[in-house]
Design a protein that fits this description.
α2 runs antiparallel to α3, α2 packs across α4 and α3 crosses α4. Helices cover 65% and strands 0% of the residues. The protein is built from five helices and no strands. The chain starts with a helix and ends in a 6-residue tail after the last helix.
Length: 82
């Protein structure tokens, strides 16, 4: 599985050092940003405690993406005429 996954990431241009386990962080973060309760996400991941899910796997994507977009807008402009 790991070898096949690395071939996919290499062909996608993401590099070949990824593992399927790293998808757990993305899954948890996306589900959390989508409003799914942490208890439900923990059940889906097979975690015994929602605390592990929240502390280890959940990363807040929204604020990071918004901050990155604001920086990009300040560097490249928003495309609107002044």
């Amino acid at each position: 599985m790991r070898r096949a996954f690395r071939l996919v990431t290499k062909k996608a241009g993401s590099g070949e050092f990824w593992s399927p386990r790293e998808l757990r962080h993305s899954f948890v973060s996306i589900m959390s940003d989508g409003g799914v309760p942490i208890e439900a996400i923990a059940d889906l991941c097979g975690h015994s405690s929602p605390a592990v899910t929240g502390q280890v796997y959940r990363h807040q994507l929204g604020p990071v993406i918004s901050r990155g977009a604001r920086v990009a807008d300040s560097v490249f402009g928003t495309g609107e005429s002044a």
